[in-house]
Specification:
The protein has about 130 residues and is of the alpha+beta class. It has one domain: Glutaredoxin (3-Layer(aba) Sandwich), CATH 3.40.30.10. The chain has five helices and four strands. It is globular, with a radius of gyration of 15 Å. The protein starts with 9 loop residues before the first strand and ends with a helix.
């Protein structure tokens, strides 16, 4: 996996459903991740799919909350509350930042990567 330049500015677009608890959690978790791991090097745009439904459809957003990295490339998409910091950092290609995070603390359960667990369960069931 490519490492990301430690000086790159990260531009995120977070698609949310107004007032939904998981969207509120995603906003808070993304802010905390950026403050802790990308201080002064991030921009966050929050898009409410209820206020901008055509934009969400045009951008291919069918689930919320969904985080899209706009920069640096490649574009990455993560669905969920972003509560598992280490997994989010890895999914964004920020393994070096993940390695520097405090160890020992258990991450709260979230549903990032739920599709991977579902695919694994389906594969195990089919075998």
């Amino acid at each position: 996996m490519n490492s990301v330049n430690r000086h790159a500015v990260f531009k995120f677009r977070l698609y949310v459903a107004r007032g939904a608890m998981n969207s509120v959690q995603a906003i808070a978790n993304l802010g905390a991740i950026c403050r802790a791991h990308l201080p002064g090097r991030h921009q966050i745009e929050v898009v409410d799919v209820f206020r901008e439904p055509k934009r969400a459809l045009t951008d291919g957003i069918f689930m919320t909350p969904m985080l899209v990295t706009v920069a640096p490339l490649p574009v990455r998409r993560i669905v969920g509350t972003l509560s598992q910091t280490q997994l989010v950092l890895r999914a964004l290609g920020l393994e070096a930042f993940a390695a520097s995070a405090p160890e020992g603390g258990r991450q709260p359960a979230g549903h990032i990567g739920w599709h991977r667990r579902r695919q694994a369960a389906q594969a195990a069931h089919a075998a």
